[in-house]
Amino acid sequence: MHRQANAVWKGTLTEGTGTLDTQSGALANVPYSFKGRFQDESGKSGTNPEELIAAAHAGCFAMQLSHFLAENGTPAEKLDAKAVVTYGPAAGGGFEITESALTLTGTVPGIDAAKFKELADKAKAGCPVSKALGAIKVTLDAKLA
Question: pTM score, two decimals?
Fold first, then answer.
């Protein structure tokens, strides 16, 4: 299985702009820029690679956990997962991603908090995006609604 995305960049790092497209069409001609990545915390300037990594991580984790919960006989009504990716100056110069912090609130009938935490931790470790992010710190704060 292969998935693809395309990035087009025009201009210099700080003055240039780009667009992103995905195979599915979910992203089509979506703008990204230096301003959107480094200067505009509101997110109104377009997306950026870190935001896309956060979306991928939250989505992958929620899907993995839904599988484990169903296998346990306690399918989720709702899993509200969020990933916050930390990005900043690197010790040796440049910038780096240092962490992805997952938070989760789950509505899961018939499960106790201990089993929910166990399965959430298993999903954090087993989700393919978590594995791909093995070079950074990945944390999880999970609770039942």
Answer: 0.92
Q: Let me know: does 71 contact 108? Beta carbons within 8 Å.
A: no
Q: Which residues pair with 32 in a beta bridge?
A: 18, 47
d(CA 120, CA 133): 17
| pLDDT tens-digit readout, 52-99 | 999 999 999 999 999 999 999 999 999 999 999 999 999 999 999 999
The DSSP-derived string for 108-135 is: -TT--HHHHHHHHHHHHHHSHHHHHTTT
Going by C-alpha positions, the residue among 91, 94, 95, 141 that lies closest to residue 120 is 141
Q: How far apart are CA 137 and CA 49, in angstroms?
A: 18
